[in-house]
Design goal:
The longest helix has 24 residues. By secondary structure, the protein is of the alpha+beta class. Strands 1-7-6-5-4-3-2 form a 7-stranded antiparallel beta sheet. It is built from 3 helices and 7 strands. A hairpin with a 7-residue loop joins strand 2 and strand 3.
Length: about 160
């Protein structure tokens, strides 16, 4: 099996615990701050914890319509949040799955670094085109920044 991957890193002035709390509400915040990318994110099965299955319905700026993912890990003590897309046209017909591994790393200055590794697990030798990988990396960076800006004006999302 062939893989492709992208790495996203965004520095934040917010503490890791705060960023982790906000990121755990991605499903609520992302459609508000980036409706052109995320029309809706709904629970299909589960209670929001590990094992929960969600349906992403993508917005008009995204070349896909939908994707289902399963929550693999939520580790609040180590600020880790992992999930896997396993169904949908976001798999482009060439992928078995897409693994998202998020880790919020505390920094010495009191802020943190949001790190996201996205691994595209290919069915065969064909990989996602470079322009798609670059588009997705840029999308993840923009979405993170929009969510952080939203949280700055809505402290109730992390308190």
């Amino acid at each position: 099996m062939t893989t492709a991957s992208i790495e996203v890193e965004v520095a934040s002035t917010y503490p890791a615990e705060t960023v982790f709390k906000v990121f755990n509400k991605f499903h609520d915040i992302a459609p508000k701050v980036s409706p052109q990318a995320f029309k809706s994110i709904e629970i299909l099965e589960g209670d929001g914890g590990v094992g929960t299955i969600r349906l992403f319905t993508f917005g008009d700026d995204i070349p896909f319509t939908s994707g289902k993912f399963k929550q693999d890990v939520i580790d609040a003590s180590n600020f880790i949040y992992n999930y896997t897309f396993f169904e949908g046209d976001n798999l482009m017909g060439i992928l078995d799955s897409i693994n998202h591994q998020v880790k919020i790393v505390p920094s010495a200055e009191g802020g943190c670094v949001f790190k996201q590794t996205v691994i595209y697990n290919c069915k065969g030798d064909e990989k996602p085109p470079v322009d798609v990988l670059n588009f997705e990396k840029e999308l993840y960076e923009k979405t993170y920044k929009a969510i952080e800006a939203y949280a700055a004006t809505h402290p109730e999302v992390y308190n």
